[in-house]
Amino acid sequence: MLFNHVFAQTRTVTGQVTDADSGRPLLGVSVFVKGTSRGTSTGEGGRFSLVGVQAGEVVNVALIGYVAQDVTIGQQQTINIMLKPSTNVLEEMVVVGYGQQKKRNLTGSVVSVGADEIEKTTLQDPISILQGRAAGVQVTSNSGAPGGEMTIRVRGNSSLNSGNNPLFVVDGIPIESNSMSSLNGSENFGLNPLADLNPTDIASIEILKDAASTAIYGSRAANGVVMITTKRGAEGKAEVNLNVTSGVSAITRKLSVLNASQYRQLILDSYTNLGTTEEPYYTIIDSLNPMNNGDVDWQEELMRPAGQYKVDLSVRGGNKSTRYAWSSSYLDQDGIILNSNYKRITSRLNVDFDISDKLTVGQSISFTNATNNRINAGGVGNLSVIRELLVRPPIMSMYLPDGSLNGYSLGRRNPVGIALYATHLNKSNRLIGSQYLEYKIIKDLKFRSNLNFDYTAMKEDEFMPSTLDYREGYNTGAVRSTGNLTWGNESYFSYNKTFGEGHNVGAVAGMSFQQWRYDRTGLDGMFFPSDNIRTLNAAGVISNQGVNVASEHAMLSYFGRVSYDYMSRYLAEVNLRADGSSRFGRDQRFGYFPSASVGWRFSEEAGINNLSFLSDGKLRFSAGMTGNEAIGDYTAQGEFSLDGNYLDFAGAVPTVMPNAALTWETTTQYNAGIDLAFLSNRLILNADFYVKNTKDLLYNVPIPNTTGFSYITQNIGSIQNRGAEFLLSSKNLQGKFSWGTNLNISLNRNKVTSLPENLLTNGYIQNGTYHILQEGLPIGVFYGWRFDGVYASDQDNVNSVTHGASGPAFQGGDPIWHDLNGDNIINQDDRQIIGYAEPKFFGGISNDFSYKNFSLNVFFQFATGNDIYSEINHQRNSVVRYNNLSTDALTRWRQQGDVTNFPKPVRDDPRQSDSRVQSRWVEDGSYIKLKNVNFRYTFASSLVQRIGLRKVDAFVTATNLITWTRYTGFDPDVNSYSGLRVGIDEGSYPQSRTFIFGLNIGL
Question: What is the pTM of this model?
């Protein structure tokens, strides 16, 4: 009898889930019985079947992008559910410092990229994902190499030389985001430390931009904060997901160069134009010489289609007391240049335990093992593969008659030899973890404490064999071993209480401690007995003991936040953080960083709330201060080098002059924003306007060498950034066929507002070879000579303009330089501004289409108004060291009367036509990229469930599909220098066009 009674109360419940607005059936909706592991998901037609349901049980129905519903089961056997789109996105939660907030109640400027956007890409690191997808966030590719470093800026550069990177926080853990690589060859960038994070594990990325959002992180938040939240488990049946992808990459474009016969004629012309009896090096014109009898296309030899393969496996689930999320991933990615490869193994475990109604504990731990077989791609030296594959003459043969590599000739190394036979290997292991305890003291008051760490161990090896050098038996090697540990504790109280009708008060108060320790050991060696014996103990000469260093610093902080809102109509928030850093002098160690913000939801006011077309409207205002402490660990105290031995006695040499008065850079930011939603949230507009003023800039000020030092770090000058950001989201069509659009546009205007007079030469600071810093001008100004064309004949130089005061007059075929001061002399006084590196606008536009089981995402990324100084085009149009030239040289000046913009080639450049920093190499860097196309098909659940699976998606993704640009280098998305020396293309590893095919299987 009891058995029959129970059986009678257990049934199979069927039903359908549809979109409440369009009536469209929804696929992949999670339907499970709360408190149990019983569940399913909707299939074709939005239908589902749930077995073993008892009366009184509660069924949860949920889908990302929709408001979840709970349905209590009575006697019915069929239920139909209409889910409302959460394009009331205003109700979605976003991660902020030490907590979460509804988008609806934000008073600061925060932009979010969710898991649904991440899944549309097959990019392998979180920084790449942000490119073009987050308003106010500018991402530049420093290298197209797998695992290569990238530049990210939030609302512009706000420091001269003390770090412009944002703070990265993963699951509440501030992590190391600077490259740990020490051996980077001639390149100015290292490896991307964020490549250690598997994007498949990420649930959301939030970028905190204004002071109201970032001040809670104080001294490390002047450049914004990037909050990365990984996926965690949830109550319900365990879900297993297997994601397998495979793809191929290829170069997006090749650059034109001269062939062998064209090159030989150009070299002969360069000697003829020299006007002397000097003869060209005989092997250059001797096509029978075995070293120079080739006609090699070096790009064809070096570039290749490159494959990649990735497998992701994850399990997520839990019950009332335990929730877990485990994942593991393997990536094997070849670069498009020979012998470059990146392999990565990641594993992550996130668990949460409800010990009691009051106590919850949990932990997150991730491990990454990465191997990067790098090549020395960028830079201007002859160790750079990219430079050599463009400028090594085509006549230089690949191999000699005896079968050995033709490795070095006339200052040009063999780029194929560099890629195949030189070692540039990086291996690393990284462990990031945290453990937390959260205790509910009373109903509205909680205490949370977490202990976290981030440890990286890295081993690097370099070796350059003698076959690539002109010196017999000359080979070099180096090794570095690096350890970097960051650990800390954060403990804080949080309070949230609702009083009366609609008065909501929140507060956070706590303290944190963080410590960093960096160790590096290594040596250099040369004269190894064989190119096949590459361990450092075989070197004949050991050097560079000074690379062995150890340093550490610590920070103690106190922070707090108080927020208030009334009926989500009137909102206010204040933050304060006090940071104490060991990097500054004893009297300057603490900095204080407050912020305040208010919001007014005017759409709730009488008279406005009756406007049927306006769904929501809010004004936001904020002001606050953040800081920057990104200097050396002992800069304020002074530093010594311990390799200053004298005879046989050890010695210490002072290298950094102490400055006890050194203090924080401080950024004060003001932000005004408006959020509007129309037509039941089908159209949403967010706009922000800001001004950032940074003062007390940390800068290495040159001082007389008689002091025993070359510079002292001081607080000088100020910088301003001001700009606007717009984000527009719309649901254009709804129904069986749906179409949605997201557009973001950002503009930032940067300006140096003050510099000390004693640092200026002719009113500016020379910032490297190509840039200057000057009051009233933006960062990234190119400074040099203006190229106005080519003299068609000797008589065209009517003013007898000369090279220098006593130099020869320019002749037919020479460049026409703009004579700025009109003195008929071209010298240093004629240099001027020749370009601006920062874009006027940048952003992206994404369109999502869906029909039945098909979906398509098309994403464009753009930047406009910026210039690029193409040093790589300079190098491949200069005959220095017998360089090969581009096919533009076929239009070169050859005789009196020729009208052209390509000067005559002259050996050794006696009038500095090639060697000047000049506007000839400044190009428009604007571009539009078809950055990402993702086409996906979701198999019908009725078919999938027959084979015991939960879901199956098949997809193809194309990245960097098309680029529209006037830039003539490999790719306009490029930057060869760190810091403020922006917009330079020295020939970094080229970007690639990638096609990925994938299968996502749910069990």
Answer: 0.89
